[in-house]
Design brief:
Layout (H helix, E strand, L loop, with lengths): L19 H6 L1 H5 L2 H11 L7 E5 L7 H6 L3 E6 L2 H11 L4 E4 L11 E6 L10 H14 E12 L1 H6 L4 E5 L4 E10 L4 E10 L5 E8 L3 H10 L2 E7 L13 E8 L1
Parallel strand pairs: 1-2, 1-4, 2-3, 4-5
Antiparallel strand pairs: 5-11, 6-7, 7-8, 8-9, 10-11
The chain binds S-adenosylmethionine (SAM).
The site of S-adenosylmethionine has 18 residues, from loops.
GO molecular function, one term: methyltransferase activity
Protein name: Class I SAM-dependent methyltransferase
Organism: Paenibacillus kyungheensis
């Protein structure tokens, strides 16, 4: 794992949103639907010509560990050292890891496919920072390589907005969220409480930037990507205003 000095982690008011308790409380959600996501990815990636995959913002490696087991050469990049250590342990060093701030990372154009999944770019609020991430991803891909980007559809969230949300992981850990959406900035302001039946509660704050398809199209084209397809869900249904997701399949020009 590369050693770098991370000066500016994600903008979570120093509440360390992506810690062990994130993996604990979201445990069920991180597994639910995962197989459908893997099936979606492998329906797009050609194993003969696109075997070298980078997951940009890989978290605990839930996608790349499975892709590695299927024979792909996988690498995960994340700002969180603890998550990368989990990947190294679970893959016994087979999955490569890069500890880096995705806003600053300059790649070597050596990957066939780059993934950025589960609204990862949105965890950083600033538009310019998000553009830098897309440009970094561009620098990691070989010419003609694929970029698969999955995001929450802003239009869907606005039409189905809930200011309160909660769920449990089925093992005595719960998350309660208070949300406020600012339509002028497209920022979702989240106050999150994580509770366990037998431990102290912890409080987190995060601002999440949501995007319209129009904005994403502009960011992609100005960064040197051609959009090949936009799906609305992992079942490959077409993207519509009512689709919960925006799943972009792009090619580096
Ligand atoms: C929503 S989570 C994980 C998404 C992952 N692709 C998945 O589907 O599980 C977002 C991840 O982005 C990472 N992250 C946030 N800001 C980052 C940055 N500036 N550079 C690299 N990783 C970052 C966090 O540590 C976290 O693991």
């Amino acid at each position: 794992m590369n050693n770098i000095d991370i000066k500016k982690p994600i903008e979570d008011y120093d509440t360390n949103y992506f810690d062990q308790s994130y993996l604990d409380v979201y445990k069920k959600i991180l597994v639910d639907g995962l197989q459908e996501q893997i099936d979606f990815l492998t329906s797009i990636i050609d194993p003969d010509t696109e075997s070298n995959i980078l997951d940009f913002f890989c978290c605990n490696g839930r996608h790349i560990l499975q892709l590695s087991d299927m024979g792909f050469h996988t690498t995960g990049l994340d700002i969180n050292k603890q998550y990368l250590e989990l990947i190294q342990q679970r893959s016994q060093g087979k999955v490569q890891t890069i500890l880096a701030d995705g806003r600053e990372y300059v790649g070597q154009e050596n990957y066939d496919v780059v993934l950025n999944l589960e609204n990862s770019i949105g965890y950083i609020e600033d538009y310019e920072d998000n553009l830098k991430i897309i440009q970094s991803i561009h620098s990691c891909l070989r010419s003609g390589g694929k970029f698969i980007l999955t995001l929450i559809n802003r239009d869907y969230l606005v039409r189905n907005f809930h200011s309160l949300a909660w769920f449990g992981n089925g093992e005595g850990k719960y998350m309660l969220e208070k949300r406020r959406f600012d339509p002028t900035t497209s920022v979702l302001h989240i106050e999150e409480k994580r509770l366990t039946v037998d431990g102290p509660e912890k409080n987190y704050r995060l601002n999440m930037r949501l995007f319209s398809a129009t904005e994403i199209n502009l960011m992609l084209s100005s960064s040197g990507f051609k959009v090949l397809d936009i799906f609305g869900d992992f079942d490959r249904s077409p993207y519509r205003m009512n689709s919960p997701q925006m799943l972009y399949i792009c090619e580096k020009i």
